[in-house]
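Retro notes
What went well: the complex prediction finally ran end to end.
Inputs used:
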Amino acid sequence: EPEVTQTPSHQVTQMGQEVILRCVPISNHLYFYWYRQILGQKVEFLVSFYNNEISEKSEIFDDQFSVERPDGSNFTLKIRSTKLEDSAMYFCASSRGGDTDTQYFGPGTRLTVL
Amino acid sequence: GQSLEQPSEVTAVEGAIVQINCTYQTSGFYGLSWYQQHDGGAPTFLSYNALDGLEETGRFSSFLSRSDSYGYLLLQELQMKDSASYFCAVTGGYNKLIFGAGTRLAVHP
């Protein structure tokens, strides 16, 4: 069964450094998402992406964040200058359609900012 | 604002039936989803309701009442492996899921 994959599984970085989290969505899906989950809290929406552009972003997704689909398979989340409060689990998700279609989540990348 | 309310914890014994309720208040609504998450794991899709009524998938069923802004997840014949957190999530438009805080289910022998 096709699944969303993410790399790395765990990333440790120093405050102020740039990180890039990578995702390979399910191959026939057209909508891509990033969510984050701070330890012990709920999953929070960051951004949705369709047709090579952002379709919606949350207030969390400020100028320090960017997303890109550099080729036909990868979907990346970049945090330009990490802060301690960026430490969280970051989940990529994809769906075939938009609002009426199921989103499937990847295993996540645990980001630790020191 | 947008909010989803669900109980923080539920405890049950193996073989029992448990119902996890979710009430929502969102500016848009396309459907209500349920996800399971084991500690350290990813949210795994369980079910989706766009219309009123009951959807059944094996041991799990989900119900939606749009007029009451209410839904529930019903888990039958509980097994130890069902111990996890369960999240309701609303698709509220603009291609995003809005999650509840999650219900931690503990299944005991």
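What we learned: Chain A touches chain B at residues 31, 33, 35, 41-45, 48, 50, 55-56, 58, 91, 93, 95, 98-100, 102-108 (CB under 8 Å).
What to try next: split runs per interface for comparison.
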